[in-house]
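Is this the right way to post structure tokens for a design question? Let me know if I should format differently. Anyway, here goes:
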């Protein structure tokens, strides 16, 4: 079905996926297995597919480490009609921020790979008020957002807007 906000083909997330995302087994295995599987499949399909995309809208985000080398990470994302993306640094609700979000704070220039194409973007961390206003997009990208926020034990989940660069 077409999503009124994105114009892209999207599927509602099945309630079973939300339940699985809340389990202890998923929270132990997923951070180790999903990114590796996603990167391998992404490479094998030349950027057209990742296993996580079966369940959630997923992109490959390439950021720069402080020393300058690139690091690609699969992340849940919500795409807007203007070509920008909303990404949530949930880190599966673990107590520390994911490395890619630290990288974006230091170097906001990044690359999004989606549907086999690279898109240069500039990241901006949303304020708490902006994050609240973007809640529909956040929940579309990550239906277990509230669960992960509660598990993060006081660590605010960073939410970024990735805007296409000229």
């Amino acid at each position: 079905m077409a999503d009124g906000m994105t114009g892209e083909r999207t599927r509602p997330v099945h309630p079973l996926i939300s339940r699985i995302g809340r389990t202890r087994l998923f929270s132990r295995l997923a951070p180790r297995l999903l990114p590796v599987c996603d990167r391998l499949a992404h490479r094998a399909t030349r950027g057209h597919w990742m296993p996580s995309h079966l369940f959630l809208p997923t992109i490959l985000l390439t950021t720069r480490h402080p020393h300058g080398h690139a690091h690609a990470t699969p992340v849940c994302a919500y795409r807007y009609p203007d070509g920008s993306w909303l990404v949530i640094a949930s880190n599966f609700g673990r107590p520390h921020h994911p490395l890619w979000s630290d990288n974006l704070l230091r170097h906001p220039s990044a690359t999004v790979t989606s549907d086999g194409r690279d898109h240069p973007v500039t990241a901006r961390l949303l304020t708490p008020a902006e994050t609240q206003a973007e809640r529909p997009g956040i929940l579309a990208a990550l239906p277990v957002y509230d669960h992960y926020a509660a598990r993060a034990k006081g660590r605010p989940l960073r939410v970024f807007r990735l805007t296409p660069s000229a």
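Format looks fine. Someone answered above. Worth noting: The radius of gyration is 15 Å. Residues 1-10 have pLDDT under 50 and may be disordered.
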